[in-house]
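Example A, followed by Example B.
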Amino acid sequence: MPTAVSWESVEKMPKEFNELTLREKLIDLVDELVEKELPIKDVLKEFEKLYIETAAKKYKGNKTRTAKALGVHRNTLHNLYRALHIKSD
């Protein structure tokens, strides 16, 4: 399974990386993941988990605000927490 990357570590990357567009950053990441032959299900699961955890951190664990920011119903977010084994704070 891919190693989780925190936004703090992204912010510490060389300035050139921070100047890339989101698409360019994703292309670099996808190239690396394909090179490592990681299964797409594992990659998508890890991305989804990290995305939700990062949003939850931003909204200090408030699931209603997190769900709204992610564009999903609160019940859907709750189901994702269970499916992805995300611990509530």
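Example B, a separate protein, is given below in the same form.
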Amino acid sequence: MGIIWMLIVGGIIGWLAGLLTGRDVPGGIIGNIIAGFIGSWLGGLILGSWGPVVGGFAIIPAIIGSIILVLIVSFILRKMGHKKESWSSRKIN
């Protein structure tokens, strides 16, 4: 049950980071979970482990680290010329 709880909390943290920055995390739910896990690790390195802990994540450093990660990933994808194409803008031949 612990790993499921960590996946849920990691996904919520990644989703919150995307929501707060106004940018989508590539990969949908899996991308949110990955952003939550990596962002939590990054936030823990930068800020330490303080604040409330839920599902093994210190929430405040995790959200800040995830925001930093989402901003870095969106910057890199923008520089690489990655454009998000929506379903409605695709042309059918």
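On Example B: The chain has three helices and two strands.
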